[in-house]
Amino acid sequence: MYAAIEAARHGAGRVLLLDRSLIGRGGATVMAQMTVAASVGPGDTPGFHLADTLAAGRGLCDEALSALLCEEGRDCILEMDAWKVGWARAGNGFAQVQAPGHDRPRCVYVDFLNTGPAVSRTLRAQVQRVGDAIRRVGELAVTDLVVQGGEVTGAVALDVARGGVVTIAAGATIIATGGLTRLYARNSASANMSGDGYALALRAGARLMDMEFVQFFPIGHLAPRLVGMDPIMWDPFRYKLGGRLLNAAGEEFTERWGGGVEAGGYTVTRDLATYAITKEVEAGRGSPHGGAWLSFSHLPAATLRAAFGPVIDKLAANGIDLTRDAVEVSPIAHYHMGGVRVDTRMRTGVPRLLAAGEAVGGANGANRLSGNAITEAFAFGRVAGREAARIAAAGAPRGFDAGSATALLSSSGPARNTAALVARLQAVMARDVGPFRTASGLARAASVLAELRAELGEAPPGAPGAAHDLARLDWLDLR
Amino acid sequence: MRARLLIQRGAPGEAPREEEFALEFEPGESVLDGLRRLRVEQDATLAFRYACLNANACKECMMLLDGRVIYACTARLEAREMRLAPLGNKALLRDLATEIAPPDERLG
């Protein structure tokens, strides 16, 4: 949405904003619960933010992209404020929390559980304010980019709601499809985070980078079962209340694995906490379902209620009393640091093709700093929108011919349970391509992937043209 | 435990038919958990909407349970007959999926 707004502001008169979900309902932004990192506090600078980003990335960041995230991102946070997103205030400035890995309080938020929805709503209002220059179409799953004479001239898409095939000519195309965490059995993704954008980019001739770097959020909810709660819900609890991460013996353990002492705080970075929990489970000291305990039972009921009143009620409806019960948490696929390789203008190297947001690789190295994801989405979206407007204004492609790209969507294959194939993919990724990998595990995963590829066949199951055909959509994702 | 899901199926213009599925479940699982598992274990062609997974953030999984509007991600599976149908006040796409996109964000 930021890219569309910026493209329109830079003179693009016909911007098409496509989403395979309903606009603003799918994707990672709307699910973000809390923190957005930006150097907007007194005495803070993009340079300090950059130093923390590079350190969290373990020396493997594309530094030019990291710097862009910290600099352009800061401006975007201020612009979002002008657009009345409602960043929480403290005194004369923004309220900011200190997330693990930051040298100071640097994360703005709207409220403790609903930052993402507020961000999404604000951008959507701005998109609507732009008016006719931006046409919004939801439920359109782009399945291939059209490449003619070495440049991207548009795309082919499935109209999910009605089952039709759509072709789109474009002077510039931005891939802003998010990451790939739905490839894992346990993930904090929405249904559309299946790595579509990487496949589109790769097939169009762009390059991917750092694809091995998947971020596992260490304290994803594991047990008991909860309904209507995001699995990363314990993050805001830890910001506000600290809490204690414990093994089966009731001991704190992060220090044992190099994560430092938390002492009721929330300081250990995501990669080290994931490592500590995994090692503790391997050592036979995990919780019953194979994770760690997260306990707030040392806090008085009044403190819990003051911090999270309505959520305390939702937990009670799920049978959980935090003054009495610890919950089980374990690492869950959360974000992808790798992605499409771009320059600092978001150009992929394939003419007329750009990328933005989580789909871009490199800015966060091997481990993303808490709070950088939405900042990155803003910053890279804004840069990509500007660049796309410039490219489109410089001249349209000579013609548009989708050619054979629509053939796949019109084809009919034998019936197959593609949902079961997705589940098998997710299981093997969780078992063998998780946070810690071995050569033998990766080889085993590669052979399962080859089996799945063979079972998939050459055409999506069933006939084209059915409304909301999840079986065919799963097939296209698996491809 | 076992739920018996009676699910209304069909596309616009077809006579709606009710299909019965038996589904084993663990206490605490949501109706959405059940429907997603049903696609994996029994019938991948079943159509229903969801975007976020059980976070109650996307609000897409609205449907009728025993005639009342629910979010499938917050309603729990129960060891009984549970009748699921598409929203009655929205145009049907297929099975439990209805047209809920804002009119100016649809194709056409």
TrEMBL record, chain A:
One GO molecular-function entry: oxidoreductase activity
Lineage of source species: Bacteria, Pseudomonadati, Pseudomonadota, Alphaproteobacteria, Acetobacterales
Catalytic site: 270
Membrane-crossing segments per the record: none
Cofactor(s) essential for the protein: FAD
Record key words, sorted: Flavoprotein, Oxidoreductase
Any Pfam family the entry gives: FAD_binding_2
Keyword Nucleotide-binding assigned: no
InterPro entries, per the entry: FAD-dep_OxRdtase_2_FAD-bd, FAD/NAD-bd_sf, Fum_R/Succ_DH_flav-like_C_sf, SdhA/FrdA/AprA, Succ_DH/fumarate_Rdtase_cat_sf
Protein name: Succinate dehydrogenase/fumarate reductase flavoprotein subunit
Residue intervals of the FAD-dependent oxidoreductase 2 FAD-binding domain: 1-373
From TrEMBL, chain B:
Taxonomic source organism: Roseococcus suduntuyensis
Name the UniProt record assigns to this protein: succinate dehydrogenase
Residues that span the membrane, as ranges: none
InterPro entries per the UniProt record, alphabetical: 2Fe-2S_ferredoxin-like_sf, Beta-grasp_dom_sf, Succ_DH/fum_Rdtase_N
Gene Ontology molecular function: electron transfer activity; iron-sulfur cluster binding; succinate dehydrogenase (quinone) activity
Sequence ranges assigned to domain Succinate dehydogenase/fumarate reductase N-terminal in this UniProt record: 7-98
Names of required cofactors: [2Fe-2S] cluster; [3Fe-4S] cluster
Family of the protein in this entry: Belongs to the succinate dehydrogenase/fumarate reductase iron-sulfur protein family.
Enzyme Commission numbers on file: 1.3.5.1
